[in-house]
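User: Sequence in, structure out. Go.
Assistant: Echoing your sequence, followed by the structure tokens.
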Amino acid sequence: MNLSSFNRIALGLAVFVMAPTSEAAEPKYPFVTSEGAILCPGYSAIKDAKAAVAASDKSWFEKTGCIQVWGGLRVAVIEAPLSSSRINGMPTPSSDLPWRVRVYPTDNEADGVNVFVDPWEISTYAWATIPTSAGGGILRGLKPVQFKSRADAERWYIQNVTDHMKPNVPHVVIRDDGAFQLLLGPAAYGLLDVACPISGKPSCVLLGQLPR
């Protein structure tokens, strides 16, 4: 990918705004860029680009061929290698294993470009769901909870999202035919994958699913 392709994304950003997280808002895309995500033409450029941003060295950053973008841009994940968690050994995103993705600066799919990105700069969403039972255990379900009131939805968030995650896992309560649903995100895929364990405690399902 050349710089002109990246410039096309940058120009598209001028007319792009994130969808507001209002009561009626639902995610338009399952994966989006995080605010300030760095997109690079090659995976080897990411570390230099991050270092340049940290050093506020614009000239160095431009030489990497990377750009930094707004949050909320549509993302299609092409390759998503995972590492083993140092905590529990489960598969998890790693900054050492960049993802290859296609990013769309506008609604015109012809403007999409393939780039490499730190997986922790890719965000998704998750619905609070009704857990299911299997083999005597509890698993996360697929059906969103229909809360009777906004207060019930807020209570689920308070009780089920740990305090250390709350600053990085925003949420919105959405009215749905007289009931309410709770949507987590946008937040890093790796963070929501931990917040929504397969064990179903708590039960929530990620909108963004990785390619197999």
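User: And one key feature?
Assistant: The chain has two domains: 3-123, 125-206.
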